[in-house]
Amino acid sequence: MEVRNYLSTQQAEQWTQMVGEARNIVVLGHAGPDGDAMGAILALTQYLQAAGKKVVPITPNACPDFLRWMPGIDQVVFFRNKQSKAKEALERCDLVFCLDFNSLQRLEDLCPLVENCSAPRIMIDHHLDPEPMAALMVSDSNASATCEILFCILHQLGAYESMTRSIASCLYCGLMTDTGAFAYNSNRADLFHIIAMLIAKGIDKDQIYRNVYYSYTESRLRLMGYLMNEKMEYFPEEHTALFALTEKEMKRFNYVRGDAEGFVNLPLQIKGTKLSISLREDTEKPVVRVSLRSIGDFPCNEMAERFFNGGGHFNAAGGSLPKPIEEAVVTARKAIAACAEKLK
Ligand code: 5GP
Ligand code: MN
DSSP secondary-structure letter at 239? Predict the structure, then answer.
């Protein structure tokens, strides 16, 4: 089985030229960086550093604790905690990589700084409807993860042979987390061919699984039980679940950033469920974060655009509402009612 060549001959030349000329490179991932964003940033950073580049990986804010094991994590500049360091790197750099996002808006507070940075950009992403944001754009919404595209590009550039175990671990983490540990969006033989090639680099995939999924605190598990037992509303006609998490409840369960990760998937375990909606008060801004997940033919991205100022993938999308959480719940109920036909 062949590994796909993502870059056309012309794009490969463009890549070689842009990277070749650059000395100081910034590698960016989206706000609320997940396993795929962190995996791609860290893998590319290590690849470029091995090629002798000065690289600063930056994300708008911190990644969740269950990703802190990732090789190279200490290098990542979380803009919210280290603003001047990020600013300095963006001022000095001569090339910017944009990984795992389709719009500069996904950089949130970091967006204006990146817009004002005159360095050329290379984008690698797998979200639908990419904005024209870079001189070189490698975008494929059929890919399971940005890490999949990045693996193929590194392979195409001849970097598989010398790929380190640590780069392979980062790429594997992105593939695993963006497919719910290969539970969705992963029905392709070529994906598993890539996984085999990563395992051949000596990664411990079982350990990576435990690092990510068996790393909860007791209070996180109790919060999960509380949400499912006391907070989840279920709409049997619409095959839809809805729950809302307030800041007060987060305090009660010693919430730390990232603790709510994955909760929105839980109601999908109820047989026949088509849609799950989670609402969560943001701990930093006066907005409610919305997450949508569906199984089958319900378009989460359309619902996110229409009701929640957001977007995303067909079966996984998100957005935010600038209103109190009680009102956000009302909006979510209205959204469910408005889509009832599709959900029945
Ligand atoms: P999550 O529910 O994990 O926060 O987000 C799931 C997916 O929805 C993300 O991968 C991203 O594609 C999309 N998404 C989440 N929040 C937003 C948002 O505020 N705006 C847009 N356009 N997409 C979002
Ligand atoms: Mn991704």
Answer: T
- 230 vs 224: CA distance, rounded Å: 10
The fold of 9-213 is inorganic pyrophosphatase (n-terminal core) (3.90.1640)
Q: What integer is the mean pLDDT of 64-93?
A: 96
Q: What is the pTM of this model?
A: 0.87
Q: Is the CB of 278 under 6 A from ligand 1?
A: no
Ligand 2 centroid to residue 326 C-alpha, Å: 30
The identity of residue 286, as a single letter, is: P
Structure confidence by residue, pLDDT tens digits, 289-334 = 999 999 999 999 999 999 999 998 899 999 999 999 999 999 999 9
CA dist., res. 224 & res. 264, Å (int): 10
Q: Is 318 in the pocket of ligand 1 (CB under 6 A)?
A: yes
Residue nearest to atom 24 of ligand 1 (CA): 318
Q: Between 3.40.50.2000, 3.40.50.10860, 3.10.310.30, 3.40.50.300, what CATH number should domain 218-343 receive?
A: 3.10.310.30
What would the pLDDT profile of 83-142 be if each residue is shown by its tens digit?
Answer: 999 999 999 999 999 999 999 999 999 999 999 999 999 999 999 899 999 999 999 999
| Ligand 1, atom 14: closest residue by C-alpha | 318
Q: Bin 100: left if φ > 0, else alpha if -120 < ψ < 50, else beta.
A: left
Arithmetic mean of pLDDT, 21-38: 97
With a 6 Å cutoff on the Cβ, whether 33 touches ligand 1 is: no
